[in-house]
Amino acid sequence: MGDNRIFAGGEFLITDVAPEEVFTPEDFTDEHRMILETANDFVEKEIYPNIDNLEKKDHELVLSLLGKAGELGLLGTDVPEEYGGLGLDKVSTTVVAEAMGTAAAFGVVYGAHTGIGTLPIVYFGNEEQKQKYLPKLASGEWCGAYCLTESGAGTDALNAKTKAVLSEDGKYYILNGEKLFITNAGWASSFIVYAKVDGEQFTGFIVEKDFPGVSTGKEEEKMGMHGSSTRPVILEDAQVPVENVLFEIGKGHKIAFNSLNIGRWKLGASAVGGCKRCVTAAVKYANGRIQFKVPISSFGMIKTKLANMAIRTYMSDSMMYRLAGMFDDKLVTLDADAKKSGAEKIKVIEEYAPECSITKVYGSEVLDYCVDEYVQILGGYGFCSEYPAERYYRDSRINRIWEGTNEINRMLIPGTMMRRAVGGRLNLFPAAQAIAGELMTYSPLSVQLPDTPLALQEHMLKMTKKIGLMVAGVAAQKFGQNLAKEQEVLAILADIMIEIFAMESGLLRTIKIIDKEGEEKAEYQIAAVKSYVDDIIPQIETWAKQVIAYVEEGDMLRTQLAGIKKLARYQPIDGVSLKRAIADRIIDLEAYPF
User: Is the Cα torsion angle 207, 208, 213, 219 positive or negative in sign?
Assistant: First the structure.
């Protein structure tokens, strides 16, 4: 992947990273490109011609397409070869997820099936369970689903009321309860179900649809994703063999939360595919739409929309593959026995829980931004179902809700990093304490930058990291363990951390392109990074001041605000011309430009 330097989860906030230490789409192997081409061809040839029927929930068509995807190996990238999969790296999984992000509601079928419907068995199943279920799931013979949510247990998953009691003969667990909003419920053959053994021990089970007492309710009438099946799963004295307990009794939370980490990262990757398609579709319309005798793509505000869509997509794209590379770099350090152990692999995924939440939040919100601007560029046509923009808009909205709402993910990002800092796993507090001393001698007027294309942006990235550390340190010192109750502060800290990871990912990727191919080849990527940093620095400064104004008062408030102002000192650049250049490139290509 990169130069195989292994980073700790959340370390990006306190560590300088070199371009060669991150994986980028420019580092794809021939195999990665072939997999991406295969996945894109599948979507182009099998999904788009069938969109109308898929939107009507054609049961046989969905299962047929799932089988075809299985034949191509698209369902088995994470499944080991000995169980019928391909056992590929996480970059391969990411490229398939990106392609499926353009597959309308079938992308949801794929995502739930290959992610939370299959991976709990990959990582937590015993040998017998893997042999029994994984080949059917990897081939698409069976469709998988995941049953966690209940009426009183959404974000608070451990509040589940579904109960499991051992039968008198000791052969079955008898499950009673109802799970809500279950994706793939209408056509799934297997469900990962969570219930409390004896009403207390939160536990995972593999439940087949044909087990006695298992049924589904009626389809939910949803705002979007009409082509996906969403139903309640009803368990009425459902008989689940004792051998279908997944992992260990009372350890269901380990399965649930780590499965969601994977789902978050994959959702972010699929959002990238949707963003790229929005850019391409929007510019094709804008080039063909004539008003006042010229294409609307020649209008400045339309150019700004196209450029912003592409720039944010570039950052999201850079983040997703950076994270995939981080997974792969850490996974290759496992010894032979550990590589066969799902439990060891899940520790790698858990390590990057903050980054999984970051990519989920950022990716889903960038997609929402892109589909909104896509509709706006189409004007009235974008509001009509005759054009795909209307479906894109409705379909996108759910991404900020499932796999953990973006609000809960914003709590998890700084919350996880703070806990690791307290436990000594992340040197966040020493780094934050050092900022105060640095501010005593730091003068932005004395900074001398090298003559490189992105020197200013590299410098401002370092300054924003210092701002993030400073604000996190002040908040932690003020509230201690009670910081978990200060949701407004946590949300701002999360936004600062998200934007630092986004800026850094796009910056490092672009410097890597410059180093390999020269400045001329990176012209538009350089423009994207410059423009993005120019937009985000004032926002980070504002967020930081909001926290400090809440936490401090009097002389300390004035001192801290002066420190932020010093770190955030920045001369704005000509972002208008940069975005025009990027937009002109998009208009010429009639496609996403990076």
Answer: positive
DSSP-based three-state secondary structure for 369: helix
Angstrom CA distances, 68 to 46, 62, 135, stand at 9, 10, 14
Q: How far apart are alpha carbons 44 and 46 in whole angstroms? A: 6
Residue in 21, 373, 390, 403 annotated catalytic: 403
Q: Tell me how far the alpha carbon of residue 382 is from its chain's centroid.
A: 26
CA distances from 131 to 247, 362, 570 (A): 15, 37, 59
Q: What pLDDT shows up at residue 258?
A: 85
Answer yes or no: are the C-beta atoms of 239 and 199 closer than 8 Å.
no
pLDDT in tens, 20-62: 999 999 999 999 999 999 999 999 999 999 999 999 999 999 9
Q: How many CB atoms lie within 10 A of CB 25?
A: 22
Residues 6 or more apart whose CB falls under 8 angstroms from that of 403 comprise 260, 263, 264, 267, 360
* H-helix or E-strand spanning residue 146: strand 144-147
Residue 323 near residue 231 (C-beta atoms within 8 A):
no
Query: Hey, how many other C-beta atoms are within 10 angstroms of the C-beta on 100?
Result: 28
- DSSP result, 488-511: HHHHHHHHHHHHHHHHHHHHHHHH
Q: pLDDT at position 155, please?
A: 67
The whole-angstrom separation of Cα 314 and Cα 532 is 10
The Cα 242–Cα 66 span in angstroms is 30
CB 543 within 8 A of CB 489: no
Say what the pLDDT of residue 335 is: 75
Distance in angstroms (rounded) separating the CA atoms of residues 560 and 432: 13
Supply the pLDDT for residue 126.
Answer: 94
Identify the bridge partners of residue 245 per DSSP, sorted by sequence position.
Answer: 205
Look at residue 1 in the predicted model and tell me its pLDDT. 58
Domains of the chain: 11-143 (1.10.540.10), 146-246 (2.40.110.10), 252-407 (1.20.140.10), 427-589 (1.20.140.10)
pLDDT in tens, 148-199: 999 876 667 778 899 999 999 999 999 999 999 999 999 999 999 999 999 9
In 3-state terms, what secondary structure has residue 183? strand
* Residue ranges in the chain whose pLDDT is less than 50: none
For the question of residue 403 being annotated catalytic, the response is yes
* pLDDT digit string, tens, across residues 448-463: 999 999 999 999 999 9
Q: Which amino acid is at 396?
A: S
How far is residue 227's CA from residue 263's CA, in Å, rounded to a whole number? 20
Quote the CA–CA distance of 306 and 582 in Å, as a whole number.
Answer: 8
Say whether 196 sits in a helix, a strand or coil.
strand
Task: Please indicate, yes or no, whether the overall pTM of this predicted structure exceeds 0.85.
Answer: yes
Name residue 308's amino acid: N
